[in-house]
Amino acid sequence: MRTGLLALRAAGAAALLVALPVTAAQAEGGGSVTVTPYGVPPGSEVDLRVSGCDGTTGKASSAAFVSTVSLGPSADQPTLFAEARVKSSTAPGTYDILVVCPGRDIVSEIKGSIRVMGSSHTVTPTPTAPVHAGGGGAAAELAAAHPAAAPSEGPGTRHAVIGLVLAAVAAVAVAFRSVRRRRSARQ
């Protein structure tokens, strides 16, 4: 009995903690901007969900974002969705988010906010170009440094003759065995 009650309380506490990082800022026109998670360190990525736009596109901008993000239809909800990255140089504080939605007759603006926490977050470097990997250049340098280790030519005439002789011996052995099986089957 007590374990069931304890599990119920733990589930309630977990639901409360999951709901805390999400915030929705209501606009005068009935739209809202939901930022997940709400409080983030600089350099983090946040999800934006916007409801209340007439169209299927929009733009969201904030002084905390690296750049203006384009909103598109969400796959699972009737909202617009985008991912935005917070600048790594952003000072802690609360920043406004302005969403502009072009509609049929008017352009609607929906406002929200994001809270940037202390700068204890270390930004993981993101590659911007392919890594120069592989042994192509290193193999050429190694061969130049050790000329005795690398033969100057590939397989030559000697190797070709040995290969042909081995193939001929294998063909004769197969033919001999086939003839021998036929003779034993007749007797």
Q: Can you describe what's shown?
A:
The protein is an alpha+beta fold and 187 residues long. It has a domain at 32-116: Macroglobulin (MG2) domain (Immunoglobulin-like), CATH 2.60.40. The chain contains three helices and nine strands, in the order H-E-E-E-E-E-E-E-E-E-H-H. It has helices spanning 2-19, 136-145, 157-186; strands at 23-26, 32-36, 39-40, 45-51, 58-62, 69-73, 80-85, 93-102, 107-116. A nine-stranded mixed sheet has the order 1-2-4-7-6-5-8-9-3, with no helix packed on it. The protein is elongated and about 95 Å long. It starts with a helix and ends with a helix. The model is unreliable at 10-28 (pLDDT under 50).
